[in-house]
Amino acid sequence: MAARSAPSCHLRLEWVYGYRGHQCRNNLYYTAAKEIVYFVAGVGVVYSPREHRQKFYRGHSDDIISLALHPERVLVATGQVGKEPYICIWDSYTVQTISILKDVHTHGVACLAFDLDGQRLVSVGLDSKNAVCVWDWKRGKMLSMAPGHTDRIFDISWDLYQPNKLVSCGVKHIKFWSLCGNALTPKRGVFGKTGDLQTILCLACARDELTYSGALNGDIYVWKGINLIRTIQGAHTAGIFSMNACEEGFATGGRDGCIRLWDLTFKPITVIDLRETDQGYKGLSVRSVCWRGDHILVGTQDSEIFEIVVHERNKPFLIMQGHCEGELWALAVHPTKPLAVTGSDDRSVRIWSLVDHALIARCNMEEPIRCAALSVDGIHLALGMKDGSLTVLRVRDMTEVVHIKDRKEAIHELKYSPDGTYLAVGCNDSSVDIYGVAQRYKKFGECVGSLSFITHLDWSSDSRYLQTNDGNGKRLFYRMPGGKEVANKEEIKGVHWASWTCVSGPEVNGIWPKYSDVNDINSVDGNYIGQVLVTADDYGIVKLFRYPCLRKGAKFKKYIGHSAHVTNVRWSHDYQWVISIGGADHSVFQWKFIPERKLKDALHIAPQESLADSNSDESDSDLSDVPELDSEIEQETQLTYRRQVYKEDLPQLKEQYKEKQKSGTSKRRERAPGNSIRLHFVHGYRGYDCRSNLFYTQTGEIVYHVAAVGVVYNRQQNTQRFYLGHDDDILCLAVHPVRDLVATGQVGRDPSIHIWDTETTKPLSILKGYHQYGVCAVDFSADGRRLASAGLDDGHTVVLWDWKRGERLCVTRGSKDKIFVVKMNPYVPDKLMTAGIKHIKFWRRAGGGLIGRKGYIGTLGKNDTMMCAVYGWTEEMAFSGTSTGDVCIWRDIFLVKTVKAHDGPVFSMHALEKGFVTGGKDGVVALWDDSFERCLKTYAIKRAALAPGSKGLLLEDNPSIRAISLGHGHILVGTKNGEILEVDKSGPITLLVQGHMEGEVWGLATHPYLPICATVSDDKTLRIWDLSPSHCMLAVRKLKKGGRCCCFSPDGKALAVGLNDGSFLMANADTLEDLVSFHHRKDIISDIRFSPGSGKYLAVASHDSFIDIYNVMSSKRVGICKGATSYITHVDWDIRGKLLQVNTGAKEQLFFEAPRGKKQTIPSEEAEKIGWASWTSVLGLCCEGIWPVIGEVMDVTASCLTSDKTVLATGDDLGFVKLFRYPAKGKFGKFKRYVAHSTHVTNVRWTYDDSMLVTLGGADMSLMVWTNEMEGYREKRPCDSEESDIDSEEDGGYDSDVTRENEISYTIRALSTSIRPMFGIKPHLQQKEPSTDERPPVSRAPPQPEKLQTNNVGKKKRPIEDLVLELVFGYRGRDCRNNVHYLNDGDDIIYHTASVGILHNVATGTQSFYQEHNDDILCLTVNQHPKFINIVATGQVIQQTCQPQRRLCTSGTL
User: Does 1317 have pLDDT greater than 60?
Assistant: First the structure.
């Protein structure tokens, strides 16, 4: 049986044995509820000594290494290690996440501390700079960040008596920080002569600027300000690891195993030496202390937690024990009692009671222990050692029975036979030894078939066979007790194994992911009765599979908690518990097994929330066993929207090419043309890969998007307004609850989301910086203040924004599969859901992160792809539409029921006051009641129902529906075919907008004397559009093949169309009926042209690189033009109809004589003089200027010249439409550029009277109509940009002063070597002998008069206290502007020079200074607001990028 689904039973973490003492300090505290909080491995533990109960916080994905307690002692902050480590703030009572802080630190978070009122949190990273970061943790927002120190920082603390001050300490330093604005500024502590420069391990702040710190040598250093004033020597005899301040005073704990209590002035109260107590031992080292009232908590290096009551200080109570440092590998369970045995590299073997959750026995051995086994009667305990020896103990009193050393390498696995007569011992040297138990463990046999180390062993139930696994993943069988290898597999077939702990074998094939290294699963154990298998792997995950588990990549449930390798896992004897042990975190986890029948009663318990989903039915091969995806969705999941070149890359590319082409541009180039164009109307709507992107606005207009344009369509006047702020495909659109604003998200390397007003089409906010490749879904919150977006990057990032402030509130990885929809909860602004390929997730915000839980399907359904989702009438209820046509109804995260709604996928859903409306691939709109019980009404989209006022024609009945919106008594429907329809409640349908269907559009022709045009596309349709005010599709005809080009005859009666299979046809231009068709070529027909005048000849160009010339009247081929080396791209006739100009894919410009097709060689000067009937060529001298600097990356695909031969319009691969003056001679002409299409502009054509330009966007399937605004018409439009690809100096250079200033580089000087060598310590940093009368030096205050000094030894003068700046001559005018201002009604002048801000009093001529800058000031401005009088901002050259603001009455930094 293949395990198609995960097992329906469950594991619940019940107890964790251990405490992380190694490499961590200050990580053990009392909470307000008198519980004890600490961490072990990747789990935060809250232990209640009264009830002897543990609660677990499992929001981390790797080892936790730091912990801080909020001043109110309920909330806990924990930090972890990892590539992208994060900080979780969680509630110790409910163990739920309150906030997540992420995306700043790398490697790990070494220390954490809350400030006095608990509003801010400081964290220190493990990166190379040991970054210090201050957070507003509730909002998940970083307030400030600075590099901490070049070496490790061990402790950091807020000064609880001075706001905005912090102290950090670490390897050979202590730093005093002040937080000012968003800048953290450090000052190093001065050790001076009072104490030696030392590594400081811990600290505590006290009143009067005093700081106490514990040093590596056991002394306590006392600081005042930044100076060391005294040391308390010998406080401990070795390093002081922990210092804890409380109301009564301070407690310190050190490596010497002592706890000392001090009063508030740091006078000693008492000392408690833990090594001398009953539980003590030599080498006990204290890592953490916490003093609360008369209780003291102590955490030790060896994973114990003691509680000491101050009155009975010699009887500490041991409340938690665990293994010490060193890997933990050995695990065995007692055959009849609820006991587990573990053995570790710390050389101890320990016996745990699974019922009492306590350590009941421990024995220290001579060697590190690698494996353990209990005999069948539970009397003997065999231990395999790292040095190859084997020791057997009596369980009763832990005395040795026998000690054997037959091997030199580590013993990895040993097991007693089920009948109790033999012990099999597997070694690293790839042998297995068999010993007889009753014969005092005499060696009976040896198995030598393996080529690699032995990893696992199992006996058969009759004790006659042994199976082994080795490091190569080989599975071998031996006869017992002799150890002969079984060669014939038939012999083994019927054998029943007493236990299953092997990782290879047919029964456990499914535990391996499809593509994986053999050794990353360390241990398995089968539970035959419950038919489940538990596995432990190198990634810290415990998994449950069904047993037997035959097919690779089976489904499982996974549980996290261990940090790195889980080395071993076993069921308890009665299958009530699973015990797992962690290698590096040396912790023992005890999981309660909840079988299937019990789960039913426990459904109301929501699964544990965590960032790494701890209850997922994921398998490593999701796709092997799912129903086929619907073809449309299949197609859509393949779309990546990746571009070769993004518009963001243009400036860079231009720079690169400019370097290459420095010499080329000497000719004076033409100005850009005087004409400009303005987007007038767009035919098309993006439905083929987007959903729910069509809405009514407040005023009843319709807003949607196509290509890179947001469109607001007025259906009464049949006009459109455009939002042109995007520069690439828009993929999603959401409307604000007030329906006056719209958010749209686009494709891009760093894609942006624009929020714009539908009335003015002006942007209000642009958000970028967190997505990659594109934004595929957006949604506003119910109050309209927030916006959620989902991206197209590999992790499908979900971001929550405060869009008005442009601020990211939180961000998270959404899912490994594509997300189709994101929806904000209308009742709770902090909740949202995302849905997409085979998942739906419910998220809630926690500070800077989002916590997601997968929808729990249970037995009701299968994991379907969700295409749309809405919230219901309460915050718990949600509805989603699946790819199979069902609607799923969710309560909280549980699937309640499913309802069949459509045939094929449900693509769109809309919630009403009393009910819902859905639309699907079946082309039906369905109205439902408020609980999806009954379908009230359905509307089928059919051609028969089209109302007379429609602006086009429906191509097929029941088109796939992609968007639905309600309002103004109508249902608005968007289809996959690019149509927007309005369905009246009574049934008639009006078609409002339409474009081509999926497939590229290339063919475009404008009529010789009417405002209409024809297009032909890969969607196999030929369409005629009206460009006059009615803007509609006049006619459409289906073709047998897609087409790439078309052309009207000069009299406008016939229309020639070239198709993709090499055939072409001529149709009647009015009825679109066939006149004649030919099929002479095999490849695409790329251009087709009637000769001018009577239209006697037709030139047909193909990708076979030939041009056929036909006589139209006789319908015969009269000539073939040969000689092109590549496919033909453009063809033009001359005015006489005698000459053809041809462009090819190889960028050749060729000329052929008509009608015979003889190749002509015409020099380019002559070619210029020829009069051409049309110009669509992109090559030749006349249009040399249209090729951009980056012509190698980007093709100009189309051009078209106005009939008065003055303006050339071009379209290119990057979606730009450009206008050039004609002829565009000289390279890189100047142009006006317009963005509306997204990628390729495949064709451009002027209408017969040049009043409009029609452009086609290939992949965006849209037809855009632009009006031509003549030179006199001078209303500047936002999308005009007069620019060229190379701006040369010819356009008026700079004034010499400006040129010079433009060339100043401020970086060189700041980064170059120092002007003069500096050695020694600056005078003011040198240590002075502190004298009794010395006050702390205050800079910029006049120094006190020096007292007369009597008989100083050697008559040394005292060093001068300080230099004070008195006057500065000079003002920086040479490269600065607007940097002198009056202040205080003209009494003072403020300006700057060098690195000083100067306030000059006009009357007295005195100056006062602002001296916090450390390099040249370059700019200065004064705040004009009456509220901020005398506030000045100055900015300086690099080194530090802070802008101190200052209030000038006092010259202090704000």
Answer: no
Tell me: pLDDT of 722 over 80.
yes
- Residue 248: which domain range? 239-320
Question: Which pLDDT value is given to residue 660?
Answer: 67
Residue 1325 is assigned to a structural domain of this protein: no
270 and 354: one domain?
no
Question: What does the pLDDT average to over 338-364?
Answer: 91
Do the strands 1001-1006 and 989-994 form a parallel or antiparallel pair, or are they unpaired? unpaired
Distance CA 664, CA 658 (A): 9
Q: Which of 549, 574, 595 is the last residue of a domain?
A: 595
Confidence of residue 517 (pLDDT cuts 50, 70, 90): low
**CB contact at 8 A, 557 and 616:** yes
> What string of DSSP letters covers 1329-1360?
PP-TTPPPP-TTSPPPPPPP----GGGPPPPP
Cis check for the bond before 7: say yes or no (omega within 30 of 0): no
Residues contacting residue 341 through CB under 8 Å, at least 6 positions apart: 330, 331, 332, 333, 334, 349, 350, 351, 352, 372, 374, 381
Beta-strand relationship, 894-900 and 1231-1235: unpaired
Q: Per-residue b/e over 745-780, b at no fewer than 16 CB within 10 Å?
A: bbbbbebbbbbbbbeebebebebbebbbbbbbbbbb
Contacts of residue 1344, defined as CB under 8 A and 6 or more positions apart, other chains included, come to 1335, 1361
Element (DSSP H or E) covering residue 232? strand 227-232
Sorted by sequence, the CB contacts under 8 Å of residue 240 that are 6+ apart come out as 201, 202, 214, 215, 218, 220, 252, 253, 254, 255
**Tokens 């109307």 belong to residue:** 681
Rounded to whole angstroms, how far apart are CA atoms 589 and 567?
12
Top pLDDT among 108 and 1226 is at: 108
pLDDT given at position 1192: 63
3-state secondary structure of 407: coil
301 has a pLDDT exceeding 80: yes
CA gap 999, 490 in Å, rounded: 60
Q: pLDDT of 572-602, one tens digit each?
A: 999 999 999 988 888 999 999 988 765 444 4
H-helix or E-strand containing 1045? Answer: strand 1043-1048
Nearest to 979 by CA among 633, 641, 1262, 744: 1262
Q: Are residues 1259 and 1388 in the same domain?
A: no
Of residues 841, 697, 818, the one with CA closest to residue 756: 697
Contact (CB, 8 A) for 692 and 823: no
CA distance 991 to 297: 76
Q: Say what the pTM is.
A: 0.77
Q: Tell me the per-residue pLDDT of 601-640, one tens digit each, with 9 for 90 and over.
A: 444 444 444 433 344 444 433 333 444 566 777 777 777 7
Confidence of residue 3 (pLDDT cuts 50, 70, 90): low
Q: Residue 1447 has what pLDDT? A: 46
Burial pattern 1081-1108, b for ≥16 Cβ within 10 A else e, equals: beebbbbbbbbbeebbbbbbbbbbbbbb
User: For residue 659, what are its two tokens?
Assistant: 């370097």
Same domain, 1218 and 1252: yes
Distance (Å, whole) CA 17 – CA 28: 15
Return the bridge partners of 692, or none.
Answer: none
Rounded Cα–Cα distance for residues 891 and 221 (Å): 59
Helix/strand/coil for 1400: strand
Spacing of C-alpha 922 from chain mean position: 36
CA 205 to chain centre: 38
Task: Return d(Cα 257, Cα 281) in angstroms, integer.
Answer: 9
Note whether 550 and 456 are same-domain residues.
Answer: yes
Instruction: Work out whether the CA dihedral 1018, 1020, 1026, 1029 comes out positive or negative.
Output: negative
Distance CA 1255, CA 1245 (A): 7
Q: State residue 413's pLDDT score.
A: 92
Q: What is the CATH number of the domain that holds 540?
A: 2.130.10.10
d(CA 430, CA 471): 9
